[in-house]
């Protein structure tokens, strides 16, 4: 047989392993869609000066914020000239990877421009990140740290005894944990998945007080709801009750395990392809020597 030809069984093995590799490796990059809009808050006031100047300043802000999102979860900056100045910041959830944070923040300019246009101040909150800006020197409504901006309560309620006690225990753990963990806390507490995060520049005690206020809102407005999300000006919290047990997708262990398995299997497939090719070339070399 010609040394440049490859037997059919060998081709089959290579194609199968290559296909497996192609299916497995993309899973390493798989992630949840963190760009889902949670809520937006746009000022009723719009810029009276040059809209082009305001738009250019916002564009400059985003150009400065975006690179920071690949290494930071929270960043504040200002931009402008003698005509207009704007201060802004972004924040990502602390459980996002660097590439997930970057991807989420990269979505914000388009969403903000679409929903708030020339508003003097705006806040756009996606599932994985949010962005807030205010035009300097203009009459923008002041907000308090504990002001309620958005909330959701599931219509489905938890029936039976024990839920209130379980929720109180999980909330107590979350309230203390968000302070001790530096402003972000997520855990599974028996049948409850809870999460809390404070704005990046909010100190420990102030963060704890903000989350305490958010918990109070959830208790008063959502009661026995199976899930709730509460967003105050400088913090947010959420909980979800799973009567049949917390699924793997809401477990940190499950998420990291899934990525690890994909990487290991993808690497194994790559090694398999390399091994077969090595055997083939060795075989070709032997035939040429005959």
TrEMBL record:
<keyword id="KW-0677">Repeat</keyword>
<keyword id="KW-0812">Transmembrane</keyword>
<keyword id="KW-0732">Signal</keyword>
<dbReference type="GO" id="GO:0010497">
    <property type="term" value="P:plasmodesmata-mediated intercellular transport"/>
</dbReference>
<dbReference type="GO" id="GO:0046739">
    <property type="term" value="P:transport of virus in multicellular host"/>
</dbReference>
<dbReference type="InterPro" id="IPR038408">
    <property type="entry name" value="GNK2_sf"/>
</dbReference>
<keyword id="KW-0945">Host-virus interaction</keyword>
<feature type="transmembrane region" description="Helical">
    <location>
        <begin position="261"/>
        <end position="281"/>
    </location>
</feature>
<dbReference type="GO" id="GO:0005886">
    <property type="term" value="C:plasma membrane"/>
</dbReference>
<dbReference type="Pfam" id="PF01657">
    <property type="entry name" value="Stress-antifung"/>
</dbReference>
<feature type="domain" description="Gnk2-homologous">
    <location>
        <begin position="145"/>
        <end position="244"/>
    </location>
</feature>
<comment type="similarity">
    <text>Belongs to the cysteine-rich repeat secretory protein family. Plasmodesmata-located proteins (PDLD) subfamily.</text>
</comment>
<feature type="domain" description="Gnk2-homologous">
    <location>
        <begin position="35"/>
        <end position="138"/>
    </location>
</feature>
<dbReference type="InterPro" id="IPR051378">
    <property type="entry name" value="Cell2Cell_Antifungal"/>
</dbReference>
<protein>
    <submittedName>
        <fullName>Cysteine-rich repeat secretory protein 3 isoform X3</fullName>
    </submittedName>
</protein>
<dbReference type="GO" id="GO:0009506">
    <property type="term" value="C:plasmodesma"/>
</dbReference>
<keyword id="KW-0965">Cell junction</keyword>
<keyword id="KW-1015">Disulfide bond</keyword>
<dbReference type="InterPro" id="IPR002902">
    <property type="entry name" value="GNK2"/>
</dbReference>
<keyword id="KW-1133">Transmembrane helix</keyword>
<keyword id="KW-0472">Membrane</keyword>
<feature type="signal peptide">
    <location>
        <begin position="1"/>
        <end position="30"/>
    </location>
</feature>
């Amino acid at each position: 047989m010609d040394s440049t030809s490859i037997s059919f069984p060998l081709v089959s093995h290579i194609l199968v392993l290559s296909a497996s590799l192609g299916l497995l490796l993309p899973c390493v990059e798989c992630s949840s869609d963190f760009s889902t809009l949670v809520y937006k808050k746009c000022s009723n006031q719009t810029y009276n000066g040059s809209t082009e100047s305001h738009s250019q300043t916002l564009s400059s802000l985003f150009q400065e914020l975006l690179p920071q999102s690949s290494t930071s979860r929270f960043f504040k900056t200002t931009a402008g000239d003698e005509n207009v100045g704007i201060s802004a910041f972004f924040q990502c959830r602390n459980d996002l990877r660097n590439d997930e944070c970057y991807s989420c923040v990269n979505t914000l300019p388009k969403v903000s421009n679409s929903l708030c246009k020339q508003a003097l101040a705006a806040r756009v909150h996606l599932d994985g990140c949010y962005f807030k800006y205010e035009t300097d020197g203009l009459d923008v409504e002041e907000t308090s740290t504990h002001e309620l901006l958005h909330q959701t309560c599931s219509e489905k309620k938890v029936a039976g005894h024990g839920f209130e006690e379980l929720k109180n225990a999980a909330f107590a753990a979350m309230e203390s944990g968000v302070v001790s963990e530096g402003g972000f806390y997520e855990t599974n507490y028996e049948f409850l998945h809870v999460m809390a995060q404070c704005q990046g520049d909010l100190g420990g005690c102030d963060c704890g007080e903000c989350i305490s206020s958010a918990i109070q809102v959830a208790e008063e407005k959502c009661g026995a709801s199976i899930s709730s999300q509460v967003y105050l000006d400088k913090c947010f919290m959420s909980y979800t009750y799973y009567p049949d047990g917390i699924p793997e997708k809401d477990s940190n262990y499950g998420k990291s395990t899934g990525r690890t398995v994909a990487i290991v299997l993808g690497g194994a497939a790559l090694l398999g392809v390399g091994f077969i090719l090595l055997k083939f070339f060795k075989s070709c070399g032997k035939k040429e020597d005959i």
